[in-house]
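User: ok so my PI wants both of these folded by tonight, can you help

Assistant: No problem, let's get them done. Here's the first:
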Amino acid sequence: MRRRPYASVTFLRTDMAEVIRPEGWDNWRNAANEKTARYAEFENTGPGAGTNRRAGWSRQLTARQAAAYTVENVLGGPDHWKP
């Protein structure tokens, strides 16, 4: 499997099960990925949602930052796919 250095994942208000590792994210044994990959979360719940042991390069979003994650912004605007 080829690992991508520009991964981008954000979890917003997600119920996270206990299978989520405390660090939350993995750099795929390449510290350079920490400079290009983007991992963020906001107001998650459940046994896997604790943030006190998350990887130092992951981010906790503010309410203002999380508000930018709209369907249109994520899926490309009004001329693109609409669920």
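One down. Here's the second:
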Amino acid sequence: MEHGTLGYFGDMRLKKNGELLFKRIIEKRSVSLRKLGGNRATEVKFGRFLSNEKVTMNELTEESTKKTGQLASGHHVLALQDTTELNFEAHAGRVSGLGKVGNGIDAGLFLHPLLVLEAHSGACLGLGAVHTWMRHKTKSKNYQKQPIEEKESSRWLETALEGKKTLKEAALVTIIADRESDIYEEWCRIPDERTHLLTRACHNRKLANKEMLFEHAASLEVKGIKEVEVRERTKKRSAHKAKLEIRYGEIEIKKPKNCSDENAPESVKLTVVDVKELAETVIENEEPIHWRLLTTHEVKTYEDACNIVKWYAFRWNIEQLFRTLKKQGFQVESSQLETGTSLTKLAIIALRAAVQTMQLTLARSGKIDRPVSDVFTSEEVEVLKAMRPRLEGKTVKQKNPHPKENLSWAAWIIARLGGWNGYASERPAGPITMLRGQIEFASICRGWFMAKDVCIP
């Protein structure tokens, strides 16, 4: 896979050690230093790299987002942000410097990235920002009255601001988040002429016309019925075709009483797109889909509203990224490192590697016209070309249907190596299948390049 630098860190030795560590993580799809090192000396070298004070989280993050900014240039991009916790309670007895995770008991840390997609195709371009923190104290009694800067929820604003810097060359940026990001200060501070917000409403806000948001949204005229494929989500949601009523309209939300920003305007004009599943498609006792989407985008037509729904649905991909990073993928929570700082650095590096798996996963359909060079080196493309005939069958349906210069062509090969049967009629390969394929491909590449070196006179 395409390897890169993790940063310079003011020291060429650290730069090279970082490049080797990232190369091994890419090849082995693991964060176990013992597995990555291959021998005791290299394992110790990687541990010292992660514990070195010169190897800062800021530089790791900046290097992780640099290419994303370049790929986003001139495009309308969707910047998806969300939070995941990394639970290290199983190793808490020997790990220092961790905080508490969501249950208030277990040891761990929080990771809050910005995943960037191209809006038209859904292609994954990379990371736009990464915010990390540890919870060392409980909420204060006057939490609601505290300035947003003193609350954990400031991460939504800080990550959005960092993303704006990374994506400064993009034609348009739409920052997408779930209900936790429905923060009045965010609606006031983040949007500008080329930056929009799209967030699922959390609060039944008071509107300038004295109505309440949820009741007002429900009273809007149904503009159309949209049928969508709903993915399975553990026990909460079964996979099915849902029919969704689409309503939309302009609103003006009032400044809430608990807003601590004295300079915030008394109201903000937005658009609400209300998405509600018809009773006829709800599965048994499951909750019907009901999204009240707030956005700074203008929504003048039913097609505009459907685009808002489509863009919000892309948020699923950041949850897939977390799945790839954790138990079913890189297994970051199983790391044997002994300090919270080293674990945080390792998590940022692994997140960057997990994004490559997402790039392949999203390219699998062939609808995304991204170059194979987004992920693979020219030498690895030669290996892919050699592997393709071995993975194809005799019939047309078993052939790789994608142009060889496209990432979708490579994704087809990696998916086959991961165990996918190659039939377009079958369920497409998910990120875990892609991850298995990447591991197999890396092993093939090591043998290929070793043989090539041996055969050179």
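The two ends are 27 Å apart (CA to CA). The longest helix spans residues 431-455. Good luck tonight!
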